[in-house]
Amino acid sequence: MQTMTFEDFHASLSAKEPPSGISVLLAAMWWEANGNWDRAHGIAQDIGTVEASWVHAYLHRKEGDDGNAGYWYRQAQRPHSRLGHDAEWEEIVRLLLAD
Questions:
Q1: Is-above-0.85 flag for pTM?
Q2: I need a surface site. Which of 37, 44, 61, 67 has the fewest CB within 10 A?
Q3: Does residue 1 lie within any of the structural domains?
């Protein structure tokens, strides 16, 4: 099976559903990019990995809840992001695609 590129993933955002075979965290990022924050959050909050904590942090930062985001950045062992939302979204997706 060929690895999905960032460009492929980004292009999939115009579909009605996330691509089949992607990780649940990539699906969370897909849902968030398609305006379904609640669905993305529901996925991220139920996974206990540092990657999920980063997704969770990003979601709360995007929501505007920096205090809650700070907690999740600490759980993710990452500094509180100062990137633009789109840049951080891309950084997370590229990391998740590489796993």
A1: yes
A2: 67
A3: no
